[in-house]
Amino acid sequence: MATQPLENGREQLVSTLAAPLRREFKVRAFAHRMNVHEAAEEALTHWQTCHHSPTVPTTGALAWAVSLSVGIPEAFKASCGRRGVTEAQGLAQALSLWLENNPLPTLEPAPQPVARLMIANQKGGVGKTFLASGIAQALAEEGRRVLLIDYDPQGHLTAELGFEDLIYEDDTETLMMHMDGTARQDIHELLVALDHGRFGGRLHLLPASDDAFLRDIALSKVSFSEAALERALEPLEDDYDVIILDGPPSLGLNMDTALYYVRRRAGELADRSGVLSPVWANRASHRAVRLLKAQKDDLCRKGRIEVDYLGLVINAYDSRRGKLVQENRAQWEKSTAPPVMAVIGDLKHGREAADGEIPLLEYAPESDHACAMRDLARELAL
C-alpha cells in the first residue's frame, strides 16, 4: 500500500479491494448522498477507534485508490501495524464496518443530473461498441430508462442493433445539425426504440449519421464547441436515467465534446458520470489509454472541469495467447487511476449477436458475456 500526494492538497491511499466489496461500498455511499472518497474517509477514521473487527475475505482483490485528507493514510497504516493486520485487510474491515453501520437509507436520494457514461478508446477493435451496447441493455433490463448514442461515425452500434438503413437516410436531420444549430425539428424525432420485451420500452437509440465523419470540421466553426453535444442533448435529459455514448474512434474536437458532456456537473457525486475504457492485454492499449488520459487531463486543466475516469475493462482476454498477454493483464491490474473493473473473456456470444444484429441480452441472456454486462452495470451504480 502506498500514499501519494495529489494536486488538490489531499493524499491518495493505494491498496487492493475485492470487487464485490468495492461495488457494494460505492452503491451504499451514493445512497447516503456521499462521494466514495468521503465515505472511505469516514470508514477509515471510525475503524481506527474500534478495538476489534472480524477478518474479511480479500481473495481476488484488485488495485483500488481513494482520495483522503492529509494524514489519514499514514494514521491508518500505523493502526494496521499496531493491530498486526495487512493494510488490505484493514481497508476491507473498515469498509465492511461502515456498510454494517450505514444500512440503505429510507430517505429519498439527493437530486442528481442524468448519469452520463462515455465508452471511450480511440484504438479500434477493443470492444467499445460491445461494452456500450451491453451495459445499456443490462441497465434497461433492470428498469432504468437508457438512451444509447452512436457517437462513432463508423456507425457499428447502429448497424449491430439492426438500424443501419437509418445512417444513410436522405432529407433527415442529424445529431450534428442539432450540435451546430441548423436543426429545425425536435431532437426526439431522431430516436428509435429497441422493442424487445426484456427492455420494456426503456432502451432507445440515437443512431449514427453519415455526416458524422465531418464532425471535427463542423465543430471548428461552432462557438464554444466543447459544449455543442450538451446543448444538443439537453432537451432529452429529463426523459432518461442514464445516457451512454459509444465514443468517437479518434482524438480531437469530437472527443472533447464527449468528454465535456460526461464531466462532473455542479452538485454531482464523484465517479457517477465519466469515462469507461475497454482495453486489450497488449502494449498498444497501454499507449492508447495514455493518449486518451492526456487529452482528458488537458481539457480538464484548460476548461477547469473534472472528468472522472471510472475504470477499465480488459476485453477479449485469453491467457493461452502467451506470457506477454498475461504480463500485460497483470500490469493493467496494478492500475488505480483508472482501476480495472472487469476482465471479459474472448467468447463467441458477443460476436454472434453483433453479426445477427440482435441485442446480446436478447440473443444469449444467460451467457458469460451477458452476465458480465449485468455485473458491470451494477458496479457502475448509474
Automatic annotation (TrEMBL):
Alphabetized InterPro entries for the sequence: AAA_dom, DNA_Partitioning_ATPase, P-loop_NTPase
Domain of life of the native organism: Bacteria
AAA domain span: 118-260
Stored SUPFAM superfamilies: P-loop containing nucleoside triphosphate hydrolases
One of the Pfam families matching this protein, by short name: AAA_31
Protein name stated in the entry: ParA family protein
